[in-house]
Design goal:
The protein is mainly β. The protein contains two helices and 30 strands. The chain has helices spanning 2-13, 20-32, and strands spanning 40-41, 44-45, 53-56, 60-63, 68-70, 74-75, 80-81, 87-92, 109-112, 117-120, 125-130, 137-146, 154-158, 165-166, 171-172, 201-209, 212-217, 222-224, 227-230, 234-239, 244-246, 249-252, 263-268, 274-276, 279-282, 292-297, 302-305, 308-310, 316-319, 324-326. The chain has a 16-stranded parallel beta sheet that branches. A ten-stranded mixed beta sheet has the order 2-3-8-11-13-17-20-23-26-29, with no helix packed on it. Strand 2 and strand 3 form a beta hairpin. The longest helix has 13 residues, at 20-32. It is globular, with a radius of gyration of 19 Å.
Length: 327
């Protein structure tokens, strides 16, 4: 009964004006996408009474059959609600077994949410995360809502297959917050990281996050037909070349601490990226300053065309060795 009441409340909650595009998208998803022919039911558990979790430990095609909810857990010893520090509702958990002949190309993992919702009542969680060495992850057709304002809070994170930045005193992995904005000119060899083929695809998703919407790393990733809304300052961070980012709506409210490289869409080492037919919307308060819509760091030959910008003081900001064409 509790879960049925929750689902009813969430259906009302998602019918807010700013998510009108998302609801329309969700209806389109349900009408136009059937389950994959050999789609396995996504396994869901409830560890330690903290609500729904799903763990994927091998490649395949998975379908979500109902909504998922991560609940708040009160820690009596700390006398506060537990922070889950970036734990995912859906997690790809293990790297490829070297003894198995697993595919490493496109669609190695397909996660079809089939119009269902992943909702974190608890803060500091990630909707879907890839903690493995797996590549070729496709996520489509669903809704994610993850509140919170810490760095651990992200709608989705598909990590990069890349070498770290080689600094004088340490290795600095791409995807770690303190490393993500360091230009290649500050490395020992003044070279960008080497990125592997990841072929990540995120399509037809509605994502609401408190801090950041999507982290997406590696070569030849695709982000299309999504609505991504954040209370913070960065809707999407793509690092790696060859990305296609098209037909999305990015909504940022600009809450939280400012950094020098804030942007609705951040691109790093994104040589040859295509950013087209997207809508960038800033909806901050009266005393909130708008970040740039797009920030380029060490990204050459980026094509930016057919986009709509609303409320931003600057369309494109350039850092490091970057070039672009704006149409």
């Amino acid at each position: 009964m509790k879960r049925q009441v929750f689902r009813s409340l969430m259906r009302v909650k998602f019918r807010q004006p700013v998510l009108g595009l998302g609801i329309a998208l969700g209806i389109h998803v349900l009408q136009s996408n059937a389950a994959e022919p050999t789609c396995m039911t996504l396994p869901i558990s409830d560890p330690q009474g903290a609500g729904d979790r799903a763990y994927i430990d091998k490649p395949g095609r998975y379908c979500l059959r109902h909504d998922m909810l991560a609940i708040k857990v009160f820690d009596v010893h700390a006398f506060s609600y537990k922070a889950f520090s970036g734990e995912g509702l859906i997690s790809i958990t293990h790297p490829f077994d070297s003894k198995a002949n697993y595919p490493r190309g496109k669609d190695s993992y397909v996660i079809d949410l089939q119009g269902h919702r992943l909702v974190a009542e608890a803060h500091s969680m990630v909707g879907i995360e890839n903690r493995s060495g797996g590549v070729g992850v496709t996520v489509r057709n669903g809704f994610i809502e993850v509140p919170g304002h810490t760095e651990a809070n992200r709608g989705m994170t598909l990590r990069a297959d890349s070498t770290p930045l080689d600094l004088e005193e340490r290795q600095c992995p791409i995807g770690v917050l303190k490393c993500e904005d360091i230009p290649s000119s500050q490395t020992i060899d003044r070279r960008s990281p080497i990125y592997g083929e990841t072929d990540y695809v995120i399509e037809k998703m509605v994502i609401r996050a408190g801090w950041r919407g999507v982290d997406l790393g590696g070569r030849n990733n695709v982000l299309r037909d999504n609505v991504i809304e954040v209370e913070g300052r960065v809707a999407v961070f793509q690092f790696g070349p060859g990305a296609v980012i098209e037909n999305n709506t990015f909504i940022v409210r600009g809450k939280g601490d400012r950094t020098a490289f804030d942007a609705a869409l951040k691109l790093r080492d994104a040589h040859g990226a295509i950013v087209r037919n997207n809508t960038f919307i800033f909806e901050g308060g009266f005393f909130t300053s708008a970040p740039a819509a797009i920030n380029l760091l060490d990204s050459k030959d980026v094509l930016i065309e057919g986009n709509t910008f609303k409320g931003f003081e600057q369309k494109v900001r350039v850092n490091g060795d970057s070039t672009y064409t704006l149409k």
